[in-house]
Specification:
Elements lengths: L7 H10 L5 E2 L4 E2 L6 E2 L2 H9 L3 E2 L7 H10 L4 E3 L8 H4 L6 E5 L7 E2 L2 H7 L4 E8 L9 E8 L6 H25 L15 E2 L15 H11 L5 E5 L2 E11 L8 E5 L3 E5 L4 E9 L5 E2 H7 L16
Parallel strand pairs: 1-4, 5-6, 7-10
Antiparallel strand pairs: 2-3, 6-8, 8-9, 11-12, 12-15, 13-14, 14-15, 15-16
Length: about 300
């Protein structure tokens, strides 16, 4: 059970190393310009592999339980499925349901653990497999693998890398289940770092009152998709790279250009150099090119929202 690109490597590994009976994924959704209906990456790959694909709108439907009872799986493997698995399904397989989670549990339970690690400037993260229970990422941990986060590694880059790590961890976990030598470590009740929530549009906006390092990490976590954003001259400006630099001023104040690199902006503490940006209706470009072709000047303010008319 899985949906996004992050789950594709695990899907491939399960297909290569076991008898994969079925794939469950989110239904097709409008994901492109013109609201074109597109399948999830997991569905696309599963169909290429010739595996039966199921896309129930509700995982709790009796028809889903009846189908899974008929399949009689040894284990259900869940990787970024984005649906809460009911107890009736958790109890069905011989080994239960096992989740692949990109964090060091109990740190960052919830929807965006990978992005949260980058946003908070963590030096390391990892991948866990755990036995799912009725809680939210609270089950007993089977295996945990740690990995450092590069100082310039973006959320996208980390996701691509951890997808491969996750496939390896899942493979090891399946083999330990088969051998019967797996271990289970109970998690503390409290979620270290709290529960992470899905990002809405309002959660993508840079708060210039933050310290420069927090702004830089926030931009790094969201680069290049979905992209951190601010407003410049009443228009959305996305930012993919913002590095800490010298400078001071009012939060959001444009301090001036840095030739060949971009332009600096004051934060609540310190400043950041914007190096890669995306103006509305255009592609990503060097911030220095944007500066040369737009009417920004020192003393202007970048904002968290467009001013009301």
């Amino acid at each position: 059970m899985g949906s996004p690109e992050f789950a594709v490597a695990s899907l491939q590994r399960v297909f290569d190393e076991s008898q994969l009976l079925a794939v469950y994924t989110q239904p097709d959704k409008p994901r492109a310009r013109g609201n074109k209906m597109l399948p999830t990456p997991v569905k696309t790959r599963a169909l290429e592999l010739g595996v039966p694909v199921h896309e129930p709108a509700r995982i709790r439907d009796e028809a889903v339980l009846a189908h899974l009872k008929e399949l009689n799986p040894d284990v259900i493997l869940v990787v970024a499925y984005a649906k809460l698995i009911p107890k009736s399904l958790l109890d069905l397989p011989r080994f239960g349901c096992i989740n692949v989670h990109p964090s060091l549990l109990p740190r960052y339970r919830g929807a965006i653990p990978l992005l949260a690690a980058v946003m908070n400037g963590d030096a390391e993260t990892g991948v866990c497999t755990f036995f799912m229970d009725v809680g939210y990422d609270t089950g007993d941990v089977i295996q945990m693998v740690r990995t450092p986060i590069g100082p310039e590694e973006t959320g996208e880059q980390l996701s691509e890398r951890l997808a491969l790590v996750g496939a390896d961890v899942l493979s090891d976990t399946m083999k330990s289940l088969e051998r019967g030598d797996f271990t289970r470590t109970q998690q503390p009740e409290e979620a270290e770092g709290g529960y992470t929530k899905p990002l809405g549009k309002g959660d993508l906006v840079i708060d210039w009152s933050w310290p420069a390092e927090k702004v830089s990490n926030f931009v790094r976590a969201l680069a290049n998709e979905p992209g951190a954003q601010t407003f410049a001259n009443n228009a959305i400006l996305k930012v993919a790279r913002a590095t800490v630099c010298d400078g001071a001023g009012e939060a959001g104040e444009v301090l001036g250009p840095v030739k060949g690199k971009g332009f600096s902006v004051a934060c609540g503490q310190g400043a950041v150099l914007l190096e890669t940006v995306k103006p509305a209706g255009k592609g990503w470009m060097p911030a220095w090119s944007y500066w040369q072709g737009n009417p920004l000047k020192p003393g202007d303010r970048l904002a968290a929202a467009a001013p009301s008319l």
